[in-house]
Amino acid sequence: MAGSCFDSIAKVSDWEGQLVVRVDFVPSDQPMMQEQLTQAVRVKVNQPLRLLEVRETIHNLFSSGRYSTQIRSEVDKVEGGIAVTFYTEPSWFVGQVRVIGVPSPPTESQLINAVGLELGELYTEEKRALAEQAIRRLLEDNGFFLPKIEFTATSNRKTQQRDIDIRIKSGTRAVFGDLIISGPATSNGSASINVSELRKIAQWSQGKKFHQQNIQKGVDRLENYFQDSSRWQPKIRVTGKQFDPDTGEVSLVLFLDPGPLIQVQIEGAEFSQTELHRHIPIFEEGVVDVDLLEEGRRNLRDALQSRGYFNAQVEVSRAVNHGERINILYFISRGSRHRMVKLDIRGNSFFDLHTIRERMLIRESTFSERHGRFNETLLAQDRESIKKLYIGNGFRDVEIKARVENNYRDNKGDLAVFIQIVEGLPTFVEKVRITGTENIPAKQFYPNLSSSSGQVFSELNVATDRDIILRTYFDNGFQAARFSWRIESGTAPQKVIVDYIIQEGERLLVRHPIVSGLRHTRRSLVDNEIRITPGEPFSQALMLETQRRLYDLGIFSRVDVSLQNPGSSEPYKNILLQLQEARRWTIGVGGGAEFARIGGNTKDVTSPVGDPMFSPRITLELTRLNVRGMGHTASIRTRFSNLQQRALFTYEAPRVFNSDRWRMIFSGLVDTSRNVRTFTGRRSEGALQLQQRISKPSALLYRYTFRRTSIDENTLQITPSLIPLQAQPVRVALFSGTYIQDRRDNPTDATKGMFNTFDLGVASNVWGSQANFTRFLGQNSTYHRLSKNFILARTLQIGLIAPRMGNNSLSFSDKSLSSGSTLGPDQRIPLSERFFGGGVNSHRGFPVNQAGPRDPITGFPIGGGALLVNTLELRFPLFGDTIGGVLFHDAGNVYSRFRRISFRHQQNTLYVDGTATGHEFDYMVHAVGFGLRYRTPVGPVRLDFSYGFNPPRFTGFEGSRQELLTGGGRVSNQRISRFQFHFSLGQKF
Question: Cα separation of 836 and 710, whole Å?
Answer without folding.
Answer: 17
